[in-house]
Design brief:
alpha/beta, Polymer-forming cytoskeletal protein
Length: 172
């Protein structure tokens, strides 16, 4: 895991996110449906850990204690996994392969070779530009980009079918 800077209880996590409160509702200046309260409360109103960004070979974003706030850029040379977590990256996110089945909010740019977005109710929200070589989305995974979105091949189980999704994953 990344180095923990400090732990924020829910009220302090909300203050940390206050400059970004404009992304809360559709129709706002930013126009994204991202709820800072969900991120600030974490799991069971536990708050959030603020972690230092940096470069790592691979990473599983597991923080059973609450939300994960990453200060700065996060560069992952290999596999990055978000298994149902509440993650806010206050910078750019670069990875070879990104698997996310949780809430992933990237304030900067997203650059990934392969993106596998699974599950709802949250999804992946990028406020900068997104560059994705190939993507697979399943179970109504939301993928919203405020900046420019460049997606190479995209397969979605709802529109392309489960078999197409499975074949795409096998080619990866």
């Amino acid at each position: 895991m990344l180095p923990l800077q400090r732990w924020l209880p829910p009220d302090q996590a909300a203050t940390y996110l206050h400059p970004y409160s404009g992304f809360r509702t559709r129709g706002s200046r930013m126009g994204m449906d991202v709820d800072p309260q969900v991120l600030a409360y974490g799991s069971n109103r536990s708050g959030a850990g603020v972690f230092t960004g940096g470069r790592v070979p691979s990473l599983a974003l597991e923080n059973p204690r609450g939300s994960t706030f990453i200060e700065g850029d996060l560069i992952v040379d290999g596999w990055l996994e978000n298994l149902g977590g509440l993650v806010f990256v206050r910078g750019n996110l670069v990875a070879q392969t990104l698997y996310t089945s949780g809430y992933l909010v990237v304030l900067g740019e997203l650059r990934v070779r392969r993106l596998f977005g699974e599950d709802e109710p949250y999804g992946t929200y990028v406020f900068g530009d997104a560059y994705v070589e190939s993507a697979v989305f399943s179970h109504n995974h939301h993928f919203d980009v405020w900046g420019r979105a460049e997606l190479g091949g995209v397969v979605h189980d709802e529109s392309d079918g489960y078999e197409a999704l499975r074949r795409w994953l096998v080619t990866w």
